[in-house]
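User: Predict the complex.
Assistant: Input components as received:
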Amino acid sequence: MSVTTPRGFRASGVVAGLKSSGRPDVALVVNDGPDHHAAAVFTSNRVEAAPVTWSRTVVADGRVDAVVLNSGGANACTGAPGFQDTHRTAEHVGSLLDVAPGDVVVCSTGLIGERLPMDRLLDGIDAATDALAADGGPVAAEAIMTTDTVAKTAHADRDGWSVGGMAKGAGMLAPALATMLVVVTTDAVVDPAVLDPALREATRTTFDRVDSDGCMSTNDTVVLLASGASGVEVGEAELTEAVAAVCADLARQLVADAEGAHHDIAVEVRTAASEDDALEVARAVARNTLFKCAVFGNDPNWGRVLAAVGTTTAAFDPAALDVSMNAVQVCRAGGVGEDRSLVDLSGREVRVVVDLHAGDATATIWTNDLTHDYVHENSAYST
Amino acid sequence: MSVTTPRGFRASGVVAGLKSSGRPDVALVVNDGPDHHAAAVFTSNRVEAAPVTWSRTVVADGRVDAVVLNSGGANACTGAPGFQDTHRTAEHVGSLLDVAPGDVVVCSTGLIGERLPMDRLLDGIDAATDALAADGGPVAAEAIMTTDTVAKTAHADRDGWSVGGMAKGAGMLAPALATMLVVVTTDAVVDPAVLDPALREATRTTFDRVDSDGCMSTNDTVVLLASGASGVEVGEAELTEAVAAVCADLARQLVADAEGAHHDIAVEVRTAASEDDALEVARAVARNTLFKCAVFGNDPNWGRVLAAVGTTTAAFDPAALDVSMNAVQVCRAGGVGEDRSLVDLSGREVRVVVDLHAGDATATIWTNDLTHDYVHENSAYST
């Protein structure tokens, strides 16, 4: 139930020695066809890692034969030498698989500002090529983990075809994109022109709505590969639905495994004048560090929710705002509602609903609480 | 050396019982004239507390006779009854001092979403009126503290006149404004028309450039009172300089006493195409939780600085960015610079300099690190 669940794909994960932990750190996903259609979305961070710059070009013509991924180093802020490292990585994969280097997507994740140990990486790619297997998806998912505590895979079975996926990402989860690295595969036979819109629609409402800590990565990549190996022709709507289902599953797993988090928080904004307004308000609440600290302390401090809403440009009347936390309406018409002591925040999942009473649009952002463990993990980062 | 350093002012601070700690919690500052000129700036949060709504109106005509301030409750998100409480507070002060209620500024700070215990507050105002004294500034500064660990006062002596000030604020420090409550006094004889521009210019480059935790308060108020009691006529430029000096002093004290902070961080952006660009970049870095956690851990993780810079719309070439931390140039031309191990972050003050190489504008934002103590204080907030 991974990137190798759909037919036409092989994958592998090996230990190349990039991580000091000695865990798997190089993954390879190969599309054996017959189709080699692909689309991808990347971080919107203007400081993008070398592999992102490379992979944008690779994907531009809609064909990808393989994706090589490493943890243990982001290859970001490494200048021209870093880009040459990425280029060399793609050329090495291309020569081993007998495909064009320009059809090899490269993804890296780990510490920013350090060169990759290329000898170890290239040796690892040799081993990963030897290890390619039709059931290699789960070990590939393991090899892209950084501070993740569990490997993340998902799939959606449809009538004679399927979509599979894997993701890594535990910190620096924010728009747009919300995760570091994701590979999604399908064996559907699709018009190559629909892959890009299908992937964009799927990520828009899933990964783009995870905002764990407001920090945007330099390496975010989501790539979708279609092999056509099922022989089943699938239209854009069907494809989008299944890809979105896999992305939603993976996005929820990212939130559940966010660095140091004790709570997963859904901030749902309703009755907004527009979806953009709903998103702006939900994101403002999701990024408010005081609110996130309060949730960590199981404190239903709804005043901090209102203070965050008030920083936005969305249409609303402050005297009309309603807020509920885990179904207790603690704020009514901008003022005091039900007793805050009725709110139970002891569970992992917290649901905050903000009603703007300005229209009928809605949006939900998933975030996490701000905890001692988050501070600890990110002040002692070394992987 | 406080709000009562300039002539023409009396002040007091008393225990009214609003704080469970039993510390002083009601302050009064009275301008005995001969002038009663005033200007103020307030939070730009659209969810503003009742006292902010009230005080905007009070200041509109440029005359203020007294400022009454309470800690132990913000009177925010309290609806129409909360506004009536503020109104009643001003009327009570007005009747005791024999001034118009419409010339009494009201400031409140503390927990959002709870009504003030009005009986205790009004009794406290009686006591504060009895206690008014020409040397009452320091105790007034003490009475507005919430999670502040020290009272904050400042003054600037000029030729025959002076400016004094007090501030409270330890959390929820962000633009615009960066602090909760500030009163600045002067005995200069000034054209009332210059007070507002002088205060706005002074706050623009001081309080507005403190961004401790990115959270904007519902109650921020900075009020400037001019008594004319020195008899010395002062022009706009002189006044602005002295008010800015006091505001800068107070702003630096706010950063130094920010909740749970272990480091004070100056993020200076240079060679920007515009001051707006410099500010946008400096604020993006100052709000990056991963960078702030790294500083807490004395880790010069400059990649997180670049990742934050990359989220902005400022003019720059990612391959031209330079970053130094405490004078060590860890990033050169977007890539690896000097060895990060040369950076010593063990001191309280940290200076990060980002060069955009896109022009000649500059700006500095002061922020703090993100620590276990910040999380703890804000997950257990109850004052």
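Chain A has ten helices and 15 strands.
Let me know if you want any component modeled separately.
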